[in-house]
């Protein structure tokens, strides 16, 4: 079930930070500034891997 292509890869802010070279706090600032889309599930935020990859790509072109 976890390998189901219909279920998107989800990351925690800490995991997203590792992918883009930021701290968890930096990722949380981007989430709260609506610069990185995320969903809150209970007390935890989750981000789509594709959204994090898009942000990283955009950031690299600056």
From TrEMBL:
InterPro entries: HTH_17, SinI_DNA-bd. It comes from the Bacteria. GO terms for molecular function: DNA binding. Residues 10-59 form the Helix-turn-helix domain. This is Helix-turn-helix domain-containing protein. It comes from Nocardiopsis kunsanensis.
């Amino acid at each position: 079930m976890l390998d189901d292509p219909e279920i998107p890869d989800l990351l925690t802010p800490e995991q997203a930070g590792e992918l883009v070279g930021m701290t968890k706090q930096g990722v949380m600032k981007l989430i709260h500034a609506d610069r990185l889309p995320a969903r809150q599930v209970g007390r935890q935020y989750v981000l789509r891997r594709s959204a994090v990859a898009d942000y990283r790509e955009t950031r690299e072109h600056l």
